[in-house]
Write a structure and sequence with these properties.
This protein has 17 helices and 22 strands. It has 501 residues and is an alpha/beta fold. The chain folds into two domains: 257 residues, Aldehyde Dehydrogenase, Chain A, domain 1; 187 residues, Aldehyde Dehydrogenase, Chain A, domain 2, CATH 3.40.309. It is globular, with a radius of gyration of 22 Å. It binds adenosine-5'-diphosphate. The site of adenosine-5'-diphosphate has 16 residues, from helix 9 and helix 10.
Length: 501
């Protein structure tokens, strides 16, 4: 193993002084009480068959801290040969020890993982913010506790699968290939690994190339937890490594979360094979704000819906549809609120909006900012200062946009909200549904009947009412249309990892 170096990142949380109070949206918050010292290695090898092994071509790639542009560490680049080795290790574990284990023992391992995640929560939170750019308040209060919550939830199902699906005979699928994105690295790992293991499968997981640190720390945790070798294998690399997993002949299921473009490529590769798959792809969530809603509360909800995690959220509410007679007032309040948001150092607990995840994404969001102007939108950007180094974008509003504009139709995946108005509920529904996506939406109104009418009419996998971006392990999550296939979370998430005979 390579030598370890201790980063001098000592994070001392004090009382929460949050401008954007995302923490209050979750019940899992367990704020750390003392400082944490995080050890980041110079480089990380692949985790295959319970061991850290060098990549066959001995190639490593850099991971950059997007808030400083400095190198964080290096990860191994897994080739086809390495992926094959990982799949073989996963198959061996599936045929052997893991399948022989009784389900309650399997559950105990998953509980152990959940508890160890809680014990190491501070280190994971800091690593997530350094490697990916998200504000520490979010990593600390949302990502890591929620990741542990998914392991706790699915651990409980491990020995109750027959009760979950009465009259059926649940059987594990086998080896699952799992490819995850960079916006919620550890949380997406938990969404994938926890249900797969609970159902008795083994996994080969690939984290995103810009955010592999917490996945490799998770590999260390799995080793420490004493999981049988080969049950969890983690291979790092970019798109090519992902494609090797998708195309491997001995994989029974592919679970992918990422962009719609890559999702389409994967779906084409899988057509005609007998692999099962779930795809959780992009979105362009509409926030429908009616005149009867409590406006200040709604404005707060909208700010959370779009600026949480720099807008790097597939279910982000990135299109505001506001009833015409309150539109001016709402836009004014939104602009005032944008001015209070702090953009900057992800490790500062007062930061509301951290760094854009990578140079590539920074360029992509900026090109949409230019496009909006070309399309005739009016742009409002907050005037706060941003650090000189690193990739930062101030929270942005586009007004004066129309339904056909590309900034309204396409996923920007950054801190950018478009604002349109509507007169009637039917008009709002039509506009909300009129994009290629169907992942999430929100409704703000004082009237339960409107929530029901609009909520039922939205072609979205998730609809939140008078709140947004609230996640729970018990509830299914997934999309319609180009937002994906299949559901994760809850019982739906379990069935996606089983043959139900
Ligand atoms: P983004 O475009 O926002 O970076 P991607 O969809 O490209 O998001 O990335 C999500 C995950 O998919 C990452 O782990 C990435 O390495 C992986 N990936 C990218 N291209 C492919 C591909 N052709 N096949 C399989 N996985 C891929």
């Amino acid at each position: 193993m390579s030598e370890t170096k201790t980063k001098e990142t000592t994070y001392k949380p004090t009382s929460p002084n949050s401008k954007l109070d995302f923490a209050s949206l979750w019940e899992y918050s367990e704020a750390p009480e003392s400082s944490a010292n995080l050890e980041i290695k110079d480089k990380y090898d692949l985790f295959i068959g319970g061991k850290f092994v060098k990549p066959s071509k001995d190639r490593y790639f850099k991971s950059i801290n997007p808030s400083s542009n400095e190198e964080v560490t290096q990860f191994a680049e897994a080739t086809q040969k390495d992926v094959d080795k990982a799949v073989k290790a996963a198959r061996k574990a599936f045929k052997g020890e893991w399948s022989d284990l009784n389900p309650s023992s399997r559950g105990k391992y998953i509980y152990r993982i959940a508890r160890m995640l809680q014990e190491r929560a501070r280190e994971f939170a800091i690593a997530e913010s350094i490697d990916g750019g998200k504000p520490i308040r979010e990593s600390r209060d949302v990502d890591i506790p929620l990741a542990a919550a998914y392991f706790f939830y699915y651990a409980g199902w491990a020995d109750k699968l027959e009760y979950a699906f009465p009259g059926k005979k649940p059987e594990a699928l086998g080896v699952c290939g799992q490819i995850i994105p960079w916006n919620f690295p550890l949380l997406m790992l938990a969404w994938k690994i926890a249900p797969a293991l609970a159902c008795g499968n083994t996994v080969v997981l690939k984290p995103a190339e810009t955010t592999s640190l917490t996945a490799m720390m998770f590999a260390e945790l799995v080793k420490d937890a004493g999981l049988p070798d080969g049950v969890v294998n983690i291979v790092t690399g970019a798109g090519q490594t992902g494609a090797e997993i998708v195309n491997h002949k001995d994989i029974d299921k592919i679970a992918f979360t990422g962009s719609t473009n890559v999702g389409k490529i994967i779906q084409k590769s899988l057509a005609g094979t007998d692999k099962k798959y779930t795809l959780e792809l992009g979105g362009k969530g509409a926030l429908i704000l009616f005149e009867d809603a409590p406006i200040d509360q709604a404005v707060e909800g909208i700010i959370n819906a779009i600026y949480f995690n720099q807008g790097h959220v597939c279910c982000a509410g990135s299109r505001l549809l506001v009833q015409e007679n309150i539109a001016d007032k709402v836009i004014m309040k939104l602009k005032d609120r944008l001015e209070t948001l702090i953009v900057g150092d992800p490790l500062d607990k007062n930061t509301d909006i951290g760094a854009i995840n990578s140079k590539e994404q920074f360029d992509r969001v900026n090109s949409y900012l230019e496009l909006g102007v070309e399309e005739g939108a009016e742009v409002y950007q907050s005037k706060c200062s941003v650090p000189e180094n690193g990739y930062f974008i101030r929270p942005t509003l586009f007004t004066n946009v129309s339904q056909s504009n590309r900034v309204v139709q396409e996923e920007i995946f950054g801190p950018v909200l478009t604002v349109q108005s509507f007169r009637t509920a039917d008009e709002a529904i039509e506009k909300a549904n009129n994009t290629p996506f169907g992942l999430a939406g929100g409704v703000w109104t004082d009237k339960g009947s409107k929530i029901f009418k609009v909520g039922s009419a939205l072609r979205s996998g998730v609809v939140w009412a008078n709140t947004y971006n609230k996640f729970d392990p018990t509830s299914p999550f997934g999309g319609y249309k180009e937002s994906g296939v299949g559901r994760e979370g809850g019982l739906h998430g379990l069935s996606a990892y089983l043959n139900l005979k």
